[in-house]
Each structure stands twice: as C-alpha cells, then as structure tokens.
Amino acid sequence: MNKLIRVFAAVVIASLLLLFAINRLNSAVGFSSDNTLTIYNWGDYIDDDLIDRFEEETGMKVIYETFDSNEAMLTKIQQGGTTYDIAVPSEYMIAKMLEEDLLLPLDHSKLPNLKNIDERFIDLPFDPGNKFSVPYFWGTVGIVFNREMLGDMEITSWNDLWDPAFENEILLIDGAREIIGMGLNSLGYSLNDTNVDHLEKAKAKLDTLTPNIKAIVGDEIKMLIANEEAAIGLVWSGDAADMMWENENLDYVVPSEGSNLWFDNMVIPKTAKNIEGAHQFINFMLDAEVAAQNTEWVSYSTPNKEALQYMPEDMVEDERFYPSPELTEKLEVYENLGKKNLALYNDLFLQFKMHRK
Amino acid sequence: MYNFEGFTLDWYRELFQDTRLLIIVLNTLVIALLSALISTIIGVLGALSIYQVKKRRAKNTILSLNNVLIVSPDVIIGASFLILFTMAGIKLGFYSVLLSHIAFSIPIVVLMVLPKLMEMSPTLIDAARDLGASRWNVLTKVILPFITPGIFAGFFMALTYSLDDFAVTFFVTGNGFSTLSVEIYSLARRGISLNINALSTLLFLFTILLVVIYYFITQRNKAQVGGIRK
C-alpha cells in the first residue's frame, strides 16, 4: 500500500511539474494571453518570418495550426470546438462552406490592400464580389517531368502521356477531379462536364493509360519524383516548384489542351473570435511587399499584382507558373457540381483505380 | 531528407528552439501520466467491485461491457467522443483528450488487475477478518499489496496506450492543443523535417533509460523478497 501511494504521489508531482513547465512555455510565447489570432492553414504555406513580423507590428499573438485537406478543415470548423479566426480553403470548398453558412462576410473598408489583387482573380464565380474570401495563392494542375530521364522527348500536352514510350513512368496524384479532369481535358471536354457519356468516354480513355502508370499516390509524389523514382508526374504547380527546387532536372508544363485553375483563399469562419484581428491579418498578407516575400518562400503563384514588382524577374516571367494570357483562357476553375455528380466522378475514379493492366 | 550529406547536430538545436513542439511533447507526457493515474484508480475500484459480484451471470455481463471499449475500433471511439463532447458542450482541448484517454484506459486496467484478484485465495480475507482486521485493513493490508503487481502492470499499459494513441486523439484535439502522434501525422503530409527524427532519437533514449532504471529497481526488490511483507 505504501509503495502504491509513493509511486502515485510521484506521478502526481511529475504531472504537476510538467503542467507548470507547459504553462511557463505557453506564457513565454504568449499563447495564454487574450490577444491571440488563430490561423488554420495548409502545412508549409506561409513564411514564418511574416508571422513574427505581424506579431511585432500588431502586438497580437498568432496561434498557427495546419490541416492537410479541405475536408479535414471543413470538419473541424463545422464541429465548432475550436475558435479559428482565419482559414484558407480551396475554391470549391468555399462554395460548400457558404451553403452550410460557415463563413462571415468581410468588411472591405478594413481591407484597403484588396486593390492589389489582379482583376483576373477578383469577383470569381465561387464568390461573386469577394464578399467572403480573398485569394491567397493560385496555381494550375500540370505535368512535371524529368529531362534527364526522358532524353529528348518533349511533353506539352495531356495526350503526350499516352505515348507507349512512357511505360510505367507516370505517377498520378490521388484526386478524383484531377484525374478524371485529365481524361476530360485530353478529349477536349470541360473540366466541369456532367454529361455521363463524356465522363464514361474520359474514363475509357484513362483506362488505356494504365500501362504507363506506375502508381497513384498522395503527397509523397513530391519525394518520389525528386528522387527520380519515376520520370513523369501529374501534380499541382506549387508541388512542382518544390520538386524543381529539390532536383534540377525537373521541368513543369501546363498542358496545351487546358487544365485546372485553382485558388486557395483566406476566409473568416463563423468560429472566429478576433474578427478585427482577422481583418488586420488579411490586409497584412495583401500588402505588396509581404505578398512578394511570402510568394518567394512558398513558391506558388500569387494573385497580388503589385507584389510582382518586388519579386525576382525570372520568377515573374516564368510562364510555367505565370502562364501566358492565351493559355490562361483555357484554364478552368472547378465548379461545385453537386453531390450526385461528385459521386459519379468518385465512382469513375474508383473504377479507374481498380482497372487492371 | 533526400540525400545523405554528412553528420550534424543542427536538428537537435532546432528541436530545442521549437517551443511549439516542446509544448506538444510535454502535453503528451502530462496526458499520458494523468490519464494512466486516474484510469488506474478507477480501474482498480472497478475490478474490486466486479470481484465482489457473486452472480456468475451478472459478472460476465459487466465484464463484456468492460470489453466494449477494447474491441471497438479506435476510429469509432474517437468519432463517438467527438459527437459526445460537442453535444455536451465540452471545448476540445486538454480536458477532452484527457477524458477520452481515461475512458479507453480503464478497461485495460480492469483486465490487468482482475486476474490478480482471482488468483488470490479467498481464505486470506477470511483469515484476516478472523484475526480482527477491519474492512479497511483488509483492503489496504491484504488485498492491495497482493494485487500491486497487477496495478503497476495496468498503470504502465495505460501509460503506453495513451502515449501512442493516434486515432482517438486525432478526433478530440483542437484549440491549439495537440499531442505528438497527431502533430507528426500532420507534419508527415508536408514532408517531415529532420527535427522529428532528432526528437524520436531522444524519446527512444529516454525510454531505454526508463527501462534500465526499472530493471535495476526490480533487481533490487527481488533481493528483498523472502522477507516478511509489512
């Protein structure tokens, strides 16, 4: 009995000491004060120095949490247990969040820097008048390929991927809309096509690609391609930039048939407590110089027109990440197709994944 | 990491500069210790009560109920807790994680302690009563010393379950509170920084150290066994 009591007392004391240490650490970094701003963003999607600078300028403490998929973010915000002041969903998720009434309207008078955003990216169909969201980064879906491994073969379009020379060389990301979209684009259909015939045709066409496909993978595609496990990958432009930084032999192309144009946007969810601070943060991130620094760090494409002048020229003039106006015309934003059509996309994608060589 | 370039201790330095990660490590330890402690206390009381139940049928029913949390998948437990906490208005964070960890540790403690109780000869209790021990004396001087090994086993099982639980914790963390397994998972998606490797090394060394200390303590205790238990 004495032994039990002694051990348990030791455990209690140890926990109290640890709790005390946590408390000290928390107050040392200021997390326990009231003046905090909770940001819910994708992993690795902001230059940490900017957070420090924002904290210095405003005296607010930033609590930075990360998510790895739009769906995970939606669940946490729906659930409502956490007071996120800012979240950064992709455009199709904004439509969904609006349907479920999860967003607070933005006060444009508190966002003077909104004028810095390129007109092309203002007033888009998923949020007319930018009442609820401000674009943070944008990008495309395209093909990353290894020049060394492919020799002199060029890839410029989706249809090039069907070349028998690429047997077992292609990695795909595991996303229904991206992959079915590739099938649709290669046939010249819209990415938002809901015609069942067209979708079936796209799926049939994708099935003929299977001999060339090495694997369908998640985020590890970055590492696999950079390590030259495969020569070709279907990826988002931002990931491509990361890979190209890792491995000089890689190159990226936006297919000539057209592709997806996506946005990640800053919003203020219903769970927000520090709405004033959230506006300050959005305005801060819209500042031309700040956006330029952030873009250089994250290496996705910025919608901030004014920021371009502060960025290195070779970055701005890189048509792979800032495509020419002609190609931009062909890029499409995903529309919310409704539950039924999304289920169809998912079913077809699943069938495609199960298709045997 | 893509290529091996050389040896460095940089990542250890970075690890200790990352206050957020340190807080998370400490959180994980506190949750593990407290949940193991509380679930051990509740679990021992539970095992004692189950031991008292004389009807075979009732006993089996209670034991089956006890096993529900062990056999149900972690994801289901986590999702159920999330719904429960939301309905009850408990804010996600330290307490939600602590409560759920206590809940899934209790059945383990019960299962570790109960066999020890069964093993104990009932005549011990009768003898103690005959010799004039009060009920409290019987509990503290006879039963508890006898089942102490079971209690410790239960405590350490609960501790390890809590330390490495991911699925349940994933659902009930929030408001800036996170544990190590959940944090590493969210890091894994964006490419793990090498300071996680440094952290794993330190944790591994720490556990090895604990095991060594534990070994020496048991060795010393073994030498004492054979004397009369107080």
From TrEMBL, chain A:
Positions bound to spermidine: Y92
Keywords (A to Z) from UniProt: Periplasm, Signal, Transport
Subcellular localization(s) per the UniProt record: Periplasm
Biological processes, Gene Ontology terms: polyamine transport
Recorded GO CC terms: periplasmic space
InterPro entries to which the protein is assigned, alphabetical: SBP (IPR006059), Sperm_putr-bd (IPR001188)
Main location: periplasm
Annotated SUPFAM superfamilies: Periplasmic binding protein-like II
Domain of life: Bacteria
An example molecular function term from Gene Ontology annotations: polyamine binding
PANTHER family according to UniProt: SPERMIDINE/PUTRESCINE-BINDING PERIPLASMIC PROTEIN, SPERMIDINE_PUTRESCINE-BINDING PERIPLASMIC PROTEIN
This protein's name: Spermidine/putrescine ABC transporter substrate-binding protein
Organism, scientific name: Robertmurraya siralis
Automatic annotation (TrEMBL), chain B:
UniProt topology in membrane: Multi-pass membrane protein
Keyword Acetylation included in the entry's annotation: no
Main location class: membrane
Cell division is among the record's keywords: no
Record keywords: Cell membrane, Membrane, Transmembrane, Transmembrane helix, Transport
Gene Ontology annotations for the cellular component aspect, listed alphabetically: plasma membrane
Domain called ABC transmembrane type-1: residue spans: 25-214
Compartments, as annotated in UniProt: Cell membrane
Superkingdom of the source species: Bacteria
Gene3D superfamilies: MetI-like
Residues annotated as transmembrane: 20-51, 63-88, 94-117, 138-160, 166-186, 198-217
GO biological process: transmembrane transport
Family, as annotated: Belongs to the binding-protein-dependent transport system permease family. CysTW subfamily.
Protein name: Spermidine/putrescine ABC transporter permease
Species assigned in the record: Robertmurraya siralis
